[in-house]
Amino acid sequence: MGVAKAIIFSILISFILLQFVQANKMVNGEGYHGVAQSDCGVACEARCSLASRQKMCLRACGTCCARCKCVPPGTYGNEDVCPCYATMTTHDGRHKCP
Question: Which domain holds residue 41?
Answer without folding.
Answer: 35-98
